[in-house]
Every structure is written in C-alpha cells, then in structure tokens.
Prior knowledge:
The structure is a single chain. By secondary structure, the protein is of the alpha+beta class. It has twelve helices and four strands. A four-stranded antiparallel beta sheet has the order 1-2-3-4, with helices on both faces. A hairpin with a 6-residue loop joins strand 2 (140-145) and strand 3. Helix 9 runs antiparallel to helix 10. The longest helix is centred in the C-terminal third of the chain and has 17 residues, at 190-206. The relative contact order is 0.10. The mean pLDDT is 94.
Amino acid sequence: xxxxxxxxxxxxxxxxxxxxxxxxxxxxxxxxxxxxxxxxxxxxxxxxxxxxxxxxxxxxxxxxxxxxxxxxxxxxxxxxxxxxxxxxxxxxxxxxxxxxxxxxxxxxxxxxxxxxxxxxxxxxxxxxxxxxxxxxxxxxxxxxxxxxxxxxxxxxxxxxxxxxxxxxxxxxxxxxxxxxxxxxxxxxxxxxxxxxxxxxxxxxxxxxxxxxxxxxxxxxxxxxxxxxxxxxxxxxxxxxxxxxxxxxxxxxxxxxxxxxxxxxxxxxxxxxxxxxxxxxxxx
Length: 283
C-alpha cells in the first residue's frame, strides 16, 4: 500500500473551500466531492490527478453498450463490464485500508468499500444514461436501477451481483437484526452518500488513535455539508482536545453546550465540565 500523506495547509484549505462550494451547489457532483475527499487524504492528488479520475470514469462509461434496455439489462451490462472485465469488487481486507474510501485509489486498485464501488457503478452508469442511484442499506451500500416498481438492486462489492428480495433482506438482517423496510430502498441523496463515506473514514481512524489527523479532517469536511448532525461539533471538539489543542477544543465544547442547553440542560452541564477540564490541561 502506498503511504498517504496529507497536503500542506494552503492546499488543504483550497480543497476544503472547493468541497464546501460543491456541497452547496444546486446539483452537487458526487464524483467531484469524492475526489476532493481523496485530496484531503492524499497530498499527491492534484488537479491533474482529479481530471484523470474523471476521464477514467468517462472512458469506462464509453465502453458500455449503447442503452442496453430496461433496469435488469443495465444491471447486467454494468456487472459484465465493471465486475467481470474490469475486475472492480471488494474483499474483507479492503475494510482495513484508508484508500478503500478514496475514489481515485479505488479507480486505480479496482478494490474498495461497498459505498466507493457503488460510486464507481453510479458514476459510470449515469454517464452512459442509465436510470441509476445509490441505495443506502444499513451496513452495506448497493446500487439500484429503474423505478420502484421495476427496481433492480446490485452489489458492486460482489462484482455487481444482482440481488433478489431475500438477498437484500439478508443483508439488512445481518447488519441490524431487523427486517427490511421498504423505505430503505429509496434513492440516496448524493450528500448523504458523501457523509456516509466520511463516517467510514472516521471509523477507520477511530480504530487507529495515531491517525487522529484523519479523523479531524473527515469531521471538518462533514461540517461543511449543508445538512449534518449537530453532534459533529462535539466530535470535533473532542478530537481537538485529544490532539493537544486544549483552548480551541474548550471553546468548541462551550459552543456545543449552548446548543444542547435548549433541549437537555444536564447534558449541557456535562459538556461544560469537559470544557473546564480541557482548559485545566493548559496549566
């Protein structure tokens, strides 16, 4: 695995500005947002590299048959092209790699997490004119083709295997222990996809305390999304304290306490105590 080094402060600030602008666009570009996430992780990814990734997605789309038919035909065409011929799929070991969450690396390695492989499937299929969208099943992201009454689900992690109803039910039951709810089959919003990718990166970093830098930039990108959980501000504050920025972390904890106080004063008091404890570390 090639070691990934983050960009310098100026380049990082530029990527974050562009990420925030794209996230607030009328129609956010999913592939662009994913590549900007990659640029925060990999200082070697520059404008030329991002353009090359977009060109690769265009190339893959250009190799698909012209409008092969209905949803199942599209699903089969994508599986034969991306899964069989190009070798895009996942393995259990991919869950242990940061580059499995970075689009430019997934395009290079042809391996990744279910959600990044799904991004490849969606972006290639969209460019080719397919009726495609992401489906955020609990614990396992997949891709859908066609309207609800004709929906065909595929699992890019398994090379694009077409899922039957029982297959989808098993995926959900394995992740949650609960039955599949029809609402889970709705198309995922692109910004929700990006937030889920960033959550995966944070989970990877959480298991590696020495990579709190990764957790910090992932939560800071999440905060740039127009809609995000308020608790992310608390998570950022905790990371700042863990990384030794006690004053900024304490200020962030106080700010979060003010938000929480409106609905849960005891919880706000606990956060204020954490802020005082962080300031005490300065002495």
